[in-house]
Amino acid sequence: MATEAHLHQMRFRNTLTFLSNGFGIGVWSIEIAPVRLIVGISEAVLGLALFGFAAAALLGMRVGARMSDRWPINRVCGVLGLAFAVALFLPCLARDIGTLVITLILLGATNGALDVAMNTRGSLIENRYDRPIMSSFHAAWSIGGAAGAALAGVLTGFGFGPVIVLSIAALFVAVSLAASSGAYQPPAPLANECSSSCGKRRQLDPRLAGLCLLAFCALFTEGAIADWSSIYLQGVLESGFAIGFFAFSAGMSVGRLGGDRAVTRYGRLRVGSLGALIAGLAMAYVLWAPSLGTACICFLLTGQGMSNVVPMTFSMAGQVTAKTSQGIAMAATFGYTGFLLGPAFIGGLTHFLTLPLALMVLVITIGVIALTSQFVFPPKEADYQSARK
């Protein structure tokens, strides 16, 4: 059995993994523009190159799941973490579209594989804690992403190019992710401790389909807000149009920091359904009556209401399947697909509708989250223990 000291150690190491991965992606989100200028390609061509990143990430998630099943999870996180750090540096060496696409495929694949591995380890640790802790890992990712973007913005503002910025980021990520691998391995996954009949039942658990739908709708909404909130506010406000995504990100981070306590106190069902209800009403209101004040408050509430949907979904997906990594990989794949399709779908609708009307689709997807939560999340009195039985 895992001792309390070992569990705290594992939690700290996995938190560091999430923080480092978020930091790397945050840096890369800022360095995309300078890399594009160095390579000398248009925004349209860059969009096609980034499609390679997304496609490779989806494939990497399946690879990460298989690695997590086959080898000790700490070693998998360590190896994939170092691979991600190397891949994070490579785009700064690209000088033509061909090499850029290759480096983006490597970055996407390692990021997708690491995403599944660290969420799998998080689910295994959460099972041993016997209480929700998954939201704290995702909060670390959000904080790391903000820190990475801030550092890259400052360094770029001082005139440092992608080679210097990505070198610093890759070195930090490599050291921290290597340190987060650890020597102590968690005991065998709880799913493997069940009887074979339990494993078969979990493989067929219909809740997994609902959890995949939740992941898709949640990340569909997040992706669309990330790409379209500033454009929407730019069209209706004279200034302060960047406040939308900033407020959304702040609400997401704050919500995740307190997410585990909320789930423990109120249960997944209430946190998921009530949070989605608040987010949907806030999103609808900012589309109906946009102003600087409503944008700040409503996007903050939207982020806070949506903040724990993905962590809870990944946690449950790892519990209702015979293999933790396979359930998380399925939910992550559906979620990441939604994250990619969300911005494109809203953009396509703008050819037929105004942007505010197109963004009303997000109110619908948030409503689907609130409704689906009623069927996939157990009530508080049966929340944590029964989810694994």
Account of the protein in words:
This protein is mostly helical and 389 residues long. The protein has two domains: 4-187, MFS general substrate transporter like domains (Growth Hormone, Chain: A); 198-388, MFS general substrate transporter like domains (Growth Hormone, Chain: A, Up-down Bundle), CATH 1.20.1250.20. It has helices spanning 4-39, 43-70, 73-89, 97-129, 134-157, 162-181, 190-193, 196-203, 207-236, 243-257, 259-266, 268-288, 292-306, 309-319, 324-349, 355-376. The chain is globular, with a radius of gyration of 20 Å.
Low-confidence stretches: 189-203, 384-389
SSE run? HHHHHHHHHHHHHHHH
Sheet with the most strands?
none
CATH architecture tag of the largest domain: Up-down Bundle
InterPro entries: MFS (IPR011701), MFS_dom (IPR020846), MFS_trans_sf (IPR036259), MFS_Transporter (IPR051788)
GO molecular function: transmembrane transporter activity
Domain Major facilitator superfamily (MFS) profile: 10-382
Keywords: Membrane, Transmembrane, Transmembrane helix
